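ok so for the tutorial part 2 we go from a plain amino acid sequence to predicted structure tokens. step 1 is just haveing the sequence, like this:
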Amino acid sequence: MARYSYQGITTNQEGAVIFSATVSVYLTGTTTPASIYAASSGGVAVNSVLSSATTGAFKFYVDSADYALTQRFDITATKTVSPVASYIPVTLEDVSIYWGNPPEIFDVRTLAGDYAPNITANYRNILILTTGGADRNVDPVVVAGSTYEVAIYNDGTETIVFDSIGIAEAVGSGAQRNFFYDGTEWA
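step 2 — the prediction. this is what the tokens look like for a chain of 187 residues:
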């Protein structure tokens, strides 16, 4: 039995940090709250944590005694902005907890043209992209021999083409796709 951390920063679709948001975790595709922990040991299971009031950062732990290593989770962040309204800055669907791997890196932006993000090797790079009124190509900058993982969430109404000069995989409106670079090519 071990606990593994998951961390990120709550932002809106424009990339502005949202402070003191409630980050809730559910079993993928359900409304069943997941058992998460606020600390690396001890304590009782909860199903949400608060993001920082100064940085927007959040962190929670999943215990291997509670879930199989293949369990996937839906993560939502909400913040009440008035007594009767909620603001939902980001909803990530089908996010994996990668047991023992480094934290994930989030990039949230609206594209004004094709995009060549500088991604980080040995991390899960999560790109939450709005297409900005036209189909867009997303061609990550990689170093041969290194391994990369990219998850693209298309929050726009047009199509994103991943690795347009290689595998040229389309990610449609509202869709999410994961891509892996083995040191020589994307799959």
